[in-house]
Design goal:
The complex is a heterodimer of chains A (297) and B (359).
Chain A: H1 5-36, H2 43-59, H3 64-87, H4 95-117, E1 132-135, E2 138-141, H5 142-164, H6 166-176, H7 178-183, H8 188-214, H9 220-225, H10 227-234, H11 239-259, H12 269-283
Antiparallel strand pairs in A: 1-2
Helix pairs in contact in A: 1-5, 1-6, 1-8, 1-10, 1-11, 2-3, 2-4, 2-8, 3-8, 5-6, 5-8, 10-11, 10-12, 11-12
Chain B: H1 13-16, H2 23-43, H3 46-72, H4 80-97, H5 103-122, H6 130-150, E1 162-164, E2 169-171, E3 174-175, H7 183-206, H8 208-218, H9 220-225, H10 230-257, E4 259-261, H11 267-280, H12 285-308, H13 315-336, H14 340-354
Antiparallel strand pairs in B: 1-4, 2-3
The chains are: A mainly alpha (297), B mainly alpha (359).
Chain lengths: 297, 359
């Protein structure tokens, strides 16, 4: 393959911007893992569900803004029912059981969303421009730039929420130690509902971005699987980690596909992210930015 | 009144260490095998044999394999589908490269090859733990499926990427694979094979190596301190587990479906087997069978139940409903009995021992 720097940068920037989209999904995972220690496999399903619900309401003739508000309410309701039906009876179970439960939630939400809204591919258009832009010789899609801006905004809002607000401090307290947090009067159940709601709203944002890019369809769930190597690369507990992990995976994947792929029969995008994450884990078992794992007997 | 050990004296260490210490258990097991060998072939029709019993046995084998790794050794794996594909393609390459090889040898060798691959992908488990490892095993899943899909060598350059089992003899001129084979032969062969493998697995988990797996699962640092080598324990768990899963994949391709493509072993297959061991019971050989039976029968039941009571639901709607019910049932099971069906069986046996007295 002919190598040229502009082409390299074009691929790199395209990859970085695709990585931002992975980060959007990974953020939801990190939020829930930080605050409850639950590895929430259902985040991908929540992305699909949020997007399906939004499209459903828009197709019913609602203005976009109203539809978004109603979908937000639906995601909060979903968070509440997950806490009530699944998490509360499973308090104090080992993490693997909770992980399995979230796989159960994944199946349920997938089925529920499609029973409710059907399984067609929907077009979601909320007016994000998709014109190609040129910076010198380098081609960039303006949609990807909007996605990057949204992700950046989301991270800033989440950072402020976690660091500065009362609820955010309570969330961090719960993440550090459930029992200690409860003993100083933080209501665990309310906190869990809040965390899952926030994760649901992040899922809505991710769903809007992915849905406008690829159409709202079942395969969004598979894209969410790509968020997993992003997570382990960045560390399960780090919000900046999710962003940087996403950028690394996105860029690495696209560069590998374009420059190494042709020598390996192509389509190495399918597994490159996982292998990259695996190699990083061999040197840093807790991911790049995760909390150091301390084990005691 | 009948089910208790009182009055059953053991006169040797061997008797004391038996798998079924209570006489009624032994009789029950013999009865179960008699039903499986005599009664089921007599009454089962073609549909039952091909669509329920054979996949049940294949899945049981895979579930035993995953249960060894996840249930006994505590290493969460999402790569089952990849390892099943590895077994299937290894069996295919062996059977086509050496056409005279007996089917049993092909199966065992393909299991061995998968075990080697399993050890390779198990190496990170020495550094990575818990959910990080689970995600790392996804690398095995996606990489293996990609490899079998992309490189023609594995499917002998078939244009569709589908591998078909060549006709193979079991003994004499009785075919076990290919169009001339009868479902009954397949069922009886698999039944014998799975029964022997399950017995081996049960005994493995009761001996030194199985106990070292459980020690690693319960607390790996403490296990290391009392002298169990994590390297050996973890890698042997990966090897044995992959051996079983590889054979399950090979029997899937050769005996159950006859022809298969790599995509049949995608990530959903991994989840399916994972559900089996969760619903059946982590760390239980019996649970692997119960879970496999449950997961094989549930979709068939869900497909037929509305028709039986006179509802007519569109097919795509039914598929989504099936997803929903599946998810809901998993959550329900986890809440009611996180230790699975096998645990219910144990509880029932404990109750039976005391019956009719409450304590």
């Amino acid at each position: 393959m002919f190598f040229s720097w502009p082409f390299f940068f074009e691929v790199l920037i395209g990859g970085l911007l695709a990585g931002v989209m992975y980060s959007l999904v990974a953020l939801g995972f990190v939020l829930i893992f930080k605050a409850s220690g639950v590895f929430n496999f259902a985040q991908g399903a929540m992305v699909l569900f949020a997007a399906l619900t939004l499209v459903g309401f828009i197709n019913m003739g609602m203005p976009t803004a109203v539809a978004i508000l109603i979908t937000m309410a639906v995601m909060v309701a979903l968070a509440y029912s997950i806490e009530r039906v699944v998490l509360r009876p499973l308090v104090n179970q080992p993490p693997i059981i909770l992980f399995m439960a979230t796989i159960g939630i994944t199946f349920f939400i997938d089925g529920f969303g499609q029973t409710l809204w059907g399984s067609d591919v929907y077009v979601l258009d909320i007016g994000i421009p998709t014109t190609p832009l040129f910076f010198g010789d380098i081609l960039v899609n303006s949609f990807d730039l909007v996605a990057a801006a949204v992700a950046g905004l989301l991270v800033v809002v989440l950072a402020i929420f976690f660091q500065k607000t009362r609820v955010g401090r309570a969330l961090r307290a719960v993440a550090d130690d459930h029992q200690a947090a409860m003993s100083v009067g933080i209501p665990l159940r309310v906190i869990w509902v809040i965390v899952w709601s926030v994760a649901g709203l992040v899922a809505l944002v991710a769903g809007i971005m992915w849905g406008s890019k690829l159409g709202v369809q079942f395969s969004l769930v598979l894209i969410a699987l790509k968020a997993l190597p992003v997570l382990i690369l960045g560390g399960f507990t780090s919000i900046p980690g999710a962003i940087i992990g996403g950028l690394m995976i996105g860029a690495g994947e696209k560069l590998a596909e374009v420059f190494i792929g042709p020598f390996l029969a192509g389509a190495i995008e399918d597994w490159f992210a996982y292998m990259l994450a695996l190699v990083v884990l061999l040197f840093r078992p807790q991911g790049l930015f995760g909390e150091k794992i301390i084990e005691r007997v | 009144m009948i089910y208790r050990e009182a009055g059953q004296f053991k006169t040797s260490y061997a008797a004391d260490q038996g798998i079924f210490p209570i006489r009624l258990d032994r009789m029950g097991m013999v009865a179960l095998l008699l039903i499986a060998y005599l009664a089921i072939p007599a009454v089962a029709n073609h549909y039952w044999l091909v669509s329920i019993l054979v996949p049940f046995l294949v899945f049981s084998m895979a579930a035993i394999g995953l249960n060894i790794l996840t249930g006994y050794a505590g290493q969460l794996s999402l790569g089952t589908g990849g390892f099943m594909a590895c077994g299937a393609f290894a069996a295919y390459k062996l059977a086509t490269a050496f056409p005279d090889l007996h089917i049993i040898i092909v199966l065992l060798l393909s299991g061995t090859i998968t075990a080697a691959v399993g050890v390779l992908f198990g190496l990170p488990s020495l550094r990575i733990k818990g959910f990080y490892l689970a995600v790392a095993t996804l690398a095995a899943q996606f990489f293996l499926i990609w490899m079998f899909n992309k490189f023609g060598w594995f499917n002998n350059y078939s244009p569709s990427g589908v591998i078909s089992a060549p006709p193979m003899h079991l003994f004499g001129d009785i075919y076990i694979t290919g169009p001339q084979s009868s479902p009954l032969v397949k069922y009886l062969f698999l039944l014998t094979f799975v029964a022997i493998m399950a017995l081996a697995a049960k005994n493995l988990t009761r001996c030194k190596i199985g106990r070292s797996w459980m020690a690693i699962r319960d607390m790996d640092i403490a296990a290391e301190i009392i002298g169990i080598r994590p390297l050996w324990a973890k890698l042997s768990a990966f090897a044995v587990s992959s051996f079983y899963i590889g054979i399950a994949g090979a029997t899937w391709a050769f005996i159950y479906t006859g022809s298969v493509e790599a995509l049949a072993f995608d990530i959903n297959r991994s989840f399916q087997v994972l559900f089996m061991i969760i619903i059946g019971g982590l760390g239980s050989i019996l649970g692997s069978f119960l879970g496999a039976g449950f997961i094989v029968l549930l979709p068939i039941f869900l497909n037929n139940a509305p028709g039986l009571v006179g509802w007519h639901i569109p097919v795509d709607m039914l598929a989504h409903l099936e997803f929903m019910i599946f998810g809901a049932l998993i959550i329900f099971f986890l809440i009611v009995e996180p230790h699975g069906l096998a645990r219910l069986w144990t509880v029932a046996k404990e109750k039976l021992r005391l019956w009719p007295f409450p304590h």
